[in-house]
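Thread: Newbie trying to understand structure tokens

Hi all, I'm a second-year student working on a class project, and my supervisor (Dr. K.) asked me to get a predicted structure for one chain before our next meeting. I've only ever worked with sequences, so writing a 3D structure as a token string is new to me. If someone could post the tokens and maybe explain what I'm looking at, I'd be very grateful. Here's the chain:
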Amino acid sequence: MQKRNIAYLVVSFLICLFIVGVYSIYDFLQNRFPLGISKGVSVALQLKEFSNDKLEEYNPKTQRSVDVMHYTIKINLDTKKKRIDGDVTISMKLNDKNAESIPLNFYDNMKVKLVQINGIDADYGLDDKILSIQKKNKDLDSIEVRVVYSGTPKSLGFGSFNFETHQNHPFVYSLNEPVFASTWLPCIDLPDDKAQVDMFITNDTCCVSLSNGKLVDTKITDGKKTYHWKTIYPISTYLIAIYSGKYKSFSQKYLSITKDSLDLAYFAFESDLENAKKDFGDHPEYLKVFEEIFGAYPFIKEKYFVAEILWQSGAMEHQTLTGVGSIFVGGHKFFTDMLIHELAHHWWGNAVGPKTWKDIWLNEGFATYSVALYWEKKAGPRALQSTMSGRFGSFENGKLYNPGDALFGNLVYSKGAWVLHMLRNEVGDTNFFKTLHEYLRLYKYGNASTYDFKKLCEKVSGRNLTQFFDQWVFNGEGIIELAYDWSSELKGADFSLVLNTEQLQNGYDIYKFPVGVKFIYEGDESEVKTLRITERQQRFSFTLKRKPKEILLDPDKWLLATFESRND
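---
Reply by user tm_fold:
Sure, no problem. This is what the structure looks like when written as tokens:
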């Protein structure tokens, strides 16, 4: 009997070790790739020249005289020579008819063969990253520009255009964010110049070619297969995608709250198909939860596809076509949060786009907080707290608005999520979720700035939020660092408690914020009172019926703050 007990204990211990080990691996993976995205790490040097200040040089002000309405993009892929033949027609309105030239973003390593305006050959110059097309007729308020070209696209940023192989089969994929669509596509590469797209991709017949929108048709000519994809909703150039390779797939249907049926399909390399079925198959549930929180999926008339790609730094929310790096397709659901994050972008980032790259937190902070909202909806407040705790950091490397070189760093993702979390606490749940719904309604299929969002938050809540946005978005760096001490004494039948607080941080002089104070009594009974910090140093007095054995600040984890007790 004793031996059996020992054996039982040993087996139990080993099982516990196994469970802890598996959880540790899972925890490591989720923290190493918390959303399956490490954009700010892998390509920091390549993106450095494209800080927000440089982006303004990349997009000359004269581009604002152009409003692109439609792109017809014809791309012929030559995977053996690793080159493309492109034929792009751009329909645009001219806000300034007197402009002498039209500046398109396009890299000068590509060989331009033909440029036309309304079917007539036009003079042009290609210098560095700008294709400047001369416009002779000043009476036109709308035109069609056609550019025919060929060459091997540069692969910049996160890998803007890539010819690779997988198990001896060619594979091509693009990833344009933030401003690298122009490595392979002449365009106005601004996030707020959305347009409709007809995409024609021609490749070998063994390859499946994917892009945004709905599949119109396929055609085989001279041993090559052309896929025609068409968007119904406008799209930013950084969200335009091409994936082409030897894919296997499976599909699902999702019934939206609008009663429309949404096509879901998932594409993976044959060797990863079974893993993809395990990893990707829960998307109907993700959609259901987000529709309950945010409203109907914004691209219901198109689709939602997820495809495995060979970018190994994360995932990318190409509009209606999320790309997932192959190392994240393992069949163990280690990267569920990544998939949820990318789906959330279809509300925040794709439907409501950023006005400029200075507003990138409106994309990434919103999608990151959406993951926390998803788990709150599924598992309750503790899941919300746990998810947000996993995004906690010191965030000392800059401001949230216009983050400079930290365009895709943890500052934008995690601090952005925390700002929304604190905003929710500041204005209350009713106002917060009403703001999200109104934000989507007002700016869907368009773009919004941080100032637009602030103005809307103030309108819905009836509050002046200048201080909140100044300390957390526009000017504050880092987080709150609050030291406190307390003492109590019996006065008559009650206890008088004095709480002293002092802000210690350097990134912002005086934060102003509400904070809950939890008084814990013997027997583990407790009560919470809310106070508002408005000074660097403050004193608060409380009258209590009992003497607390302990107090906790921010017990429900609403603040991006550290707390140092001077009573310890």
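A couple of things are worth pointing out once you decode it. The longest strand covers residues 66-78. The first helix runs from residue 2 to 32. Feel free to ask follow-ups in this thread.
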